[in-house]
Write a structure and sequence with these properties.
7 helices, alpha/beta, 298 residues
Length: 298
């Protein structure tokens, strides 16, 4: 048997030697310059991904040669160990490191409040509706003590001693104690049609507001002016603004500091009744009050 290799054996050995030499040269370039150029025959996106992994601090892909099969395997890129690291590098995967790191630096997304809010994010006020025989209080409060306090205040400030409180308040500890209380008086005197004049009967109603504010010096009040649906929208808005300002001026005249009062106009945007009869229209010619600070400290 001849010991001289055939042309085909020589060709395989030559190709294998050439392949190993090329890989060795590539490895030498990595050791010398820290740069590996990889040609991908796939899409530009794949080529960009490899370039990005190198430029963002990832090590060049590891190249493994299998001389028995003359194949080359490219391992996934991993993080470059710092130059001051010990010789032994942790094999923790990049995915797990990223997950654990992000969990410590990314703040959790704040959850939405459990209570109703206004468009500006402030809590929607509690609503207290005063009628002849009943006072209905609804909304959310932070505690049972706050719930009880509002019931007591409603009874103390009702014009009708026999009125019964229907307390529909729910308790939500996340509700701030600064939440407002919107008071709607169904039996209060109203403004004359097309006017912002405060008549004597109406003034007596406003005296009760001034008395509450004097007794509770930490309380502030927002006065909201309203108009009925007769007339133009622009005229009604201007009229509601005048009414709110007139009420503020009247309460200030009773000794309440102006800094504790503010006003806002809504025109005909918040009607209590949509009827066109005299009673319905009169019901809408009003001001409402939002009290802030009634349950602070409770």
């Amino acid at each position: 048997m001849s010991m001289i290799p055939s042309d085909s054996d020589e060709g395989v050995d030559a190709r294998r030697a050439l392949l190993i030499a090329r890989v060795a040269g590539a490895v030498a370039l990595v050791a010398a310059g820290g740069f590996v150029l990889i040609r991908l025959n796939n899409s530009p996106r794949e080529r960009d991904a490899v370039s990005s992994s190198i430029s963002t601090g990832l090590s060049a892909p590891q190249v493994t040669v299998d001389a028995s099969t003359t194949s080359i395997k490219v391992a996934q890129a991993g993080p470059v160990p710092p130059t001051t690291s010990p010789a032994v590098v942790s094999t923790t995967s990049l995915a797990s490191v990223t997950s654990s790191t992000l969990s410590t630096i990314v703040s959790p997304t704040p959850s939405a409040p459990s209570y109703s809010t206004m468009p500006d994010g402030t809590p929607e006020p509690i609503v207290a509706v005063f009628d002849v025989e009943a006072i209905t209080v609804s909304g959310a409060v932070p505690s049972q003590a706050a719930k009880d306090r509002l019931s007591d205040l409603a009874i103390a400030n009702s014009k009708f001693p026999s009125a019964v409180v229907s307390n529909l308040l729910t308790i939500d500890p996340s509700v701030p104690t600064s939440i407002g209380v919107r008071v709607i008086e169904l039996t209060s005197a109203r403004f004359p049609s097309g006017s912002a004049e405060i008549l004597p009967a109406h003034a007596a109603e406003l005296d009760r507001v001034a008395t509450v504010m004097t007794a509770l010096p930490n309380v502030t009040v927002l006065v909201i002016g309203h108009a009925d649906q007769a007339g133009s929208e622009a005229t009604n808005y201007a009229l509601s603004e005048q009414r709110a300002q007139q009420v503020v001026s009247y309460i200030v005249s009773k000794g309440v500091a102006a800094s504790r009062l503010s006003s806002r106009a809504v025109g005909e945007a918040d009607l209590l009744s949509v009827g066109n009869d005299a009673t319905s229209l009169a019901l809408n010619r009003r001001t409402e009050f939002v009290f802030y600070g009634l349950i602070v400290g409770v």
